């Protein structure tokens, strides 16, 4: 057998080995992702039951307390409360849910926003100096997100402390499916950094979506979806609108675009 054929055979074997290793790597990745999804589906709680949680003898809902959410500049720690499903006697594995986090610099100003995505089922506020603590909610609720619309990031502004938090909370089972979760009406709430003065700032029967804070005017602009047809769902059949709130005197927000302006725009863009 000449050297050319031997070299060809070697490369064929090497190529086959590389292909097998590649397939094994892909298979291991798929299996790993599958196990993570299975773990998530198995232990994740999709919402809090309106009535008592059913115990089928296999999985039991437990209350878990997470690490404090970062709240630099605040005198209070904020502990998220979660729910998980576990088998009795089950060993804890390496898998754990990690709350999503996002950062947004507000233009060229010296403020930025931070967001922490739930779900959380309560928040515990603890004074860093005295240890005094209090829960945010005294009833069942589904906290979809915690937002810091006002946060300094420049060294010269380190003495400026956050003045409020914005929360997205579902308080009731508005679609009557037995659980309170992200499918229900979820209003925007402003709360003081110490967990007091919880004030609803968006209307009932709506879902809060996005927001933007204007530091100079102390105005918070919140985009909401209205369940206009009262079908207990929030979809493309329901209109979006924006309400504005003065965070110095928080109360139910009002639409800040006059109806006559909306009518003129509709006539310009939609009517023939």
Question: Can you characterise this structure?
Answer:
Helices cover 19% and strands 35% of the residues. The radius of gyration is 25 Å and the shape is extended. The protein has a six-stranded antiparallel sheet with strand order 4-5-8-9-11-12, with no helix packed on it. The model is unreliable at 97-111 (pLDDT under 50). It has helices spanning 3-43, 259-269, and strands at 48-49, 60-65, 76-86, 101-105, 111-120, 122-127, 133-135, 142-152, 165-170, 179-180, 187-191, 199-200, 206-214, 219-226, 240-246, 254-255. With 272 residues, it is of the alpha+beta class. The longest helix is centred in the N-terminal third of the chain and has 41 residues, at 3-43. The chain has one domain (48-88, 102-269).
Short description:
This protein is of the alpha+beta class. It has 2 helices and 16 strands.
The end-to-end distance, rounded to whole angstroms, is 83 Å
Note the total helix count: 2
Q: Stretches where pLDDT falls below 50 for ≥5 residues? A: 97-111
Query: What is the radius of gyration?
Result: 25 Å
Q: What is the residue-mean pLDDT, rounded to a whole number?
A: 78
Main beta sheet = 6 strands, antiparallel
- Strand fraction equals 25-35%
- SSE run: HEEEEEEEEEEEEEEEEH
Major sheet strand order: 4-5-8-9-11-12
Helix content: 10-25%
Query: How many E-type strands?
Result: 16
Number of domains: 1
**What structural category do the secondary elements indicate?**
alpha+beta
Shape: extended
């Amino acid at each position: 057998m000449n050297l050319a054929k031997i070299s060809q055979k070697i490369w064929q074997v090497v190529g086959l080995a590389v292909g097998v290793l590649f397939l094994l790597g892909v298979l291991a990745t798929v299996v790993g992702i599958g196990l993570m999804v299975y773990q998530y589906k198995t232990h994740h709680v999709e919402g809090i039951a309106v009535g008592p949680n059913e115990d089928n003898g296999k999985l039991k809902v437990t209350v878990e307390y997470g690490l404090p959410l970062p709240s630099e500049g605040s005198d209070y720690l904020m502990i998220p409360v979660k729910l998980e499903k576990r088998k009795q006697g089950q060993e804890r594995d390496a898998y754990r849910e990690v709350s999503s986090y996002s950062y947004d610099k507000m233009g060229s100003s010296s403020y930025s926003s931070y967001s922490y995505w739930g779900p959380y089922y309560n928040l515990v506020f603890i004074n860093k100096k005295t240890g005094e603590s209090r829960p945010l909610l005294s009833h069942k609720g589904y906290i979809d997100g915690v937002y810091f619309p006002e946060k300094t990031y420049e060294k010269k502004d380190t003495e400026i402390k956050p003045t409020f938090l914005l929360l997205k909370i579902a308080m009731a089972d508005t679609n009557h499916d037995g659980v309170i979760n992200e499918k229900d009406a979820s209003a925007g709430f402003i709360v003081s950094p110490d967990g007091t003065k919880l004030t609803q700032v968006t209307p009932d029967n709506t879902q809060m979506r996005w927001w933007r804070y204007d530091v100079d005017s102390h105005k918070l602009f919140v985009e909401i979806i209205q369940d206009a047809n009262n079908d207990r769902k929030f979809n493309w059949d329901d209109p979006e609108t924006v309400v504005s709130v003065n965070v110095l005197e928080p109360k139910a927000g009002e639409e800040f675009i006059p109806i006559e302006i909306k009518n003129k725009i509709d006539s310009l863009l939609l009517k023939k």
